[in-house]
Design brief:
With about 725 residues, the protein is an alpha+beta fold. The protein folds into five domains: about 290 residues, Rossmann fold (3-Layer(aba) Sandwich), CATH 3.40.50.300; about 110 residues, Elongation Factor Tu (Ef-tu), domain 3, CATH 2.40.30.10; about 70 residues, Alpha-Beta Plaits (2-Layer Sandwich); about 110 residues, Ribosomal Protein S5, domain 2 (2-Layer Sandwich); about 80 residues, Alpha-Beta Plaits (2-Layer Sandwich), CATH 3.30.70. A hairpin with a 4-residue loop joins strand 31 and strand 32. Helix 12 packs across helix 13 and helix 14 crosses helix 15. The structure holds guanosine-5'-triphosphate and magnesium ion (MG). The site of magnesium ion (MG) has 5 residues, from helix 1.
């Protein structure tokens, strides 16, 4: 089957932003205006579960009015195929943004015109930086009281360190938001009603525009008075992208045509020289089609972005794969979803063609996969397809071996695509089924949830035998159990949330251990010399084999590493995993008959236990970046309370009439914060938090944690 949409006519884009900026509302409008849907549902009208927006179809999303899972839809605009992924803004579901950005070519960053750049917009912006995703900015909610376009542009510059370039200016604001000045075409677009089918009327830009359109607020009038200034900024910035056009302009002074400007805007956006900024009100149906035009004009096609990098088994870069149908097949699995259709594995095809029935290789795991049914997803609906090509985002049904982050490729030309990075879960709860008889069903359901979400981890507490679920936050864990109830029909209960502490070495220790045992005829023998060195925070665990002359036979070296990996999971202070150290296997010895993989594993474990005791182990705790937005009347109380929670105030930012207090606070001090904050401020303050880093726990606090861990271990088993 030949290609139906040229690669250059595809836009794979994500909609990313802080909670409530209006991503889902905007996505819903995109589907309406492109003719993919004939109705519009509003996010706040779905709580009774009678209707849902296209992308927030899950029960938990409808009830809470927030997005939890990213959902993909596709549509056409100006003959371009636009694949849109609507992502969640809540920090607990950041994995969904993370994996979407990994496979997208461009993004629309939505801002709330009142709040401007909020913490999650910042986090997602940085994620997009990491993945090198070009983006345009859309200042939404211009109709809300307190909306301020220029303040938002300024925050994009200062808080995100970006180079925002307005390509539109708002005409009026709040109740009187009427439309926008298109600085490329130099015309005014004015809506005469909020009706979804209202078409903007075009006006020429004249000196009396503000009067003609009844714009009376001085700051709104000032924007219109400054149109020439913004236009000249736009022209100058654009021409940096095109030497020939710049020369011509300098010579004859004639401004470049809109076509030339658009070409420059496209180039500058794709190379991340700047970010075009647009405005609108999705809810009041203004500015969405103009934003779609910008997606088509400025955001990259798969062929405009750098070829995808490939890596070796250890993750080191070793080449690239071009985005083309003529290259061998390669794709990255970025999401696994269990639903009514069975297990769906979402993949982004980077090169080549995949057809139904093909046998491919999972190069990450060295396994084969047979491609059965293939579907194109439209939110929750699956549409069967026969083939997928470079640039496509599709789902494969019932793959046996493939997990999130794995590469699928043609067996004759294996590659591994650059991997994804997953956030580390920082909070844990014990979980069990409400009804003891449902243990197995509950376990299976949990297993499936964890398989689908790499920011969840499942562990068994070796001492108490309890099942421990780790996640990104309380909401994340709650939603997980609630989904198990609605999707797998089994109810679970969870204990009090616990902090995921870590343990670490504070000094270098060279340790020797001999494992020797004589039982009857055969014996056991292994000797290892291992040097343990602390590494910087976040470095994880490194193992290096430095033995020479076969003192530890090569086939047993992996057993030493395995032993260490097992033992490091259980530290000596309070049984938390030990992190951030290097283990160098420097020497050892063996016995021809009595040594084997197991004896080396045992020796390594014991060696670790001995060493960490001598290495001044410390307890580390997750520290969160907390941003509390409060009316200024309560500022003193909010800061005082932060200090009592061992918080360190980083900065205070103006947020319209409110103040945002940014602080780092240990997670253990944040449980129950929301209730306290509401009480303290009569419900007028709100906060968001996200993981920042691990820090040593102060001694007095560590003593309590260690004592409680010991108590929990000696308590009767659940
Ligand atoms: N006044 C006004 N309200 C809007 C606008 N866009 C969205 N909203 C409202 O803001 C709320 C949140 O909108 P959503 O579209 O769910 O926001 P979101 O960014 O998808 O939120 P999450 O997915 O939870 O991160 C809803 O009540 C919308 O009706 C707008 O342009 N103007
Ligand atoms: Mg949403």
């Amino acid at each position: 089957m030949p290609r139906t949409t040229a690669l250059a006519d595809i836009r794979n884009i994500g909609i990313i932003a802080h909670v409530d900026a209006g991503k889902t509302t905007t996505t819903e409008r995109i589907l309406y205006y492109t003719g993919r849907k004939h109705t519009i549902v509003d996010v706040h009208d779905t709580k009774d579960l009678k209707s849902s927006t296209t992308t927030d179809y899950m029960e938990q999303e409808q009830k809470r009015g927030i997005t939890i899972q990213s959902a993909a839809v596709s549509t056409f605009w100006r003959k371009k195929k636009i694949n849109v992924i609507d992502t969640p803004g809540h920090v607990d579901f950041t994995i969904e943004v993370n994996r979407s950005l990994r496979v997208l070519d461009g993004a629309v960053v939505v801002f709330d015109g009142v709040a401007g750049v909020e913490p999650q917009s910042e986090t997602n912006w940085r994620l997009a930086d990491n993945y090198g995703v070009p983006r345009i900015c859309y200042v939404n909610k211009m109709d809300r009281s307190g909306a301020n376009f220029l303040r938002c542009v300024d925050m994009i510059k200062k808080r995100l360190g970006a180079r925002p370039l307005p390509v539109q200016l708002p005409i009026g604001s709040e109740d009187n938001f009427k439309g926008m000045i298109d600085l490329v075409e130099m015309k005014a677009l004015v809506w005469e009603s909020d009706d979804r089918d209202a078409v903007p009327v075009e006006h020429a830009i004249t000196a009396d525009l503000a009067d003609k359109l009844d714009i009376s607020v001085p700051s709104d009038r000032k924007i219109l008075a400054d149109i020439a200034k913004y236009r000249s900024d736009l022209v100058d910035t654009c021409l940096e992208q095109d030497d020939a056009a710049m020369e011509k302009y300098l010579e004859d002074g004639v401004e470049p045509s809109p076509e030339v400007l658009r070409k420059c805007l496209r180039k500058g956006t794709i190379t991340a020289s700047f970010n075009p900024v647009l405005c609108g009100s999705s809810y009041k149906n203004k500015g969405v089609t103009q934003m779609l035009d910008a997606v088509v004009d400025y955001l990259p096609a798969p062929t405009d972005v750098e070829a995808i990098k490939t890596v070796d088994q250890d993750g080191n870069p070793n080449g690239e794969r071009k985005s083309s149908d003529d290259e061998p097949f390669s794709a990255l699995a970025f999401k696994v979803l269990n639903d009514a259709y069975g297990a769906l594995t979402f993949v982004r095809v980077y090169s080549g063609v995949l057809t139904k029935g093909m046998s491919v290789m999972n190069s990450t795991r060295g396994k084969r996969e047979k491609i059965g049914r293939m579907v194109e997803m439209f939110a929750k609906d699956a549409n069967p397809i026969e083939e997928a090509r470079a640039g496509d985002i599709i789902a494969l049904v019932s793959l046996a071996e493939t997990e999130t982050g794995d590469t699928l490729c043609a067996s004759e030309s294996p590659v591994i695509l650059e991997r994804m990075r997953f956030p580390d879960p920082v909070i844990s709860v014990s979980v069990k089924p409400k009804n003891k008889a449902e243990q197995e069903k509950f376990g299976t359901a949990l297993g499936k949830m964890v398989r689908a979400d790499p920011s969840l981890k499942l562990e068994t507490d070796r001492e108490t035998g309890q099942t421990i679920l780790r996640g990104m936050g309380e909401l994340h864990l709650e939603v997980t159990l609630d989904r198990i109830r609605t999707e797998y029909n089994v109810e679970g209960i969870m204990g009090q949330p616990q902090v995921a502490y870590r343990e670490a070495f504070t000094k270098t220790i060279a340790e020797q251990y001999v494992h020797k045992k004589q039982t009857g005829g055969s014996g056991q023998f292994a000797e290892v010399w291992i040097t343990f060195e602390p590494l910087e925070r976040g470095a994880g665990f490194e193992f290096v084999d430095e033995t020479v002359g076969g003192s530890v036979p090569r086939e047993y070296v992996p057993s030493v590493e395995k032993g260490l990996r097992m033992q490091m999971e259980q530290g000596v202070l309070a049984q938390y995993p030990t992190v951030d150290f290097r283990a160098r296997l420097t020497d050892g010895s063996y016995h021809d008959v009595d040594s084997n993989a197991l004896t080396f594993e045992i020796a390594a474990k014991a060696c670790f236990r001995e060493a960490i005791r001598k290495a001044g182990p410390i307890l580390l705790e997750p520290v969160m970046k907390v941003e509390t937005v409060t009316p200024s009347d309560y500022l003193g109380d909010v800061i005082g309370d932060m200090n009592r929670r061992r918080g360190m105030i980083q900065e205070q930012l103006e947020r319209g009439t409110n103040i945002a207090v940014v602080a780092t606070v240990p997670l253990s001090e944040m449980f129950g914060y929301i209730g306290h904050l509401r009480g303290m401020t009569s419900g007028r303050a709100s906060y968001t938090m996200e993981f920042s880093h691990y820090d040593p726990v102060p001694k007095n606090v560590a003593d309590v944690v260690i004592e409680e861990a010991a108590k929990a271990r000696s308590a009767p088993k659940a």
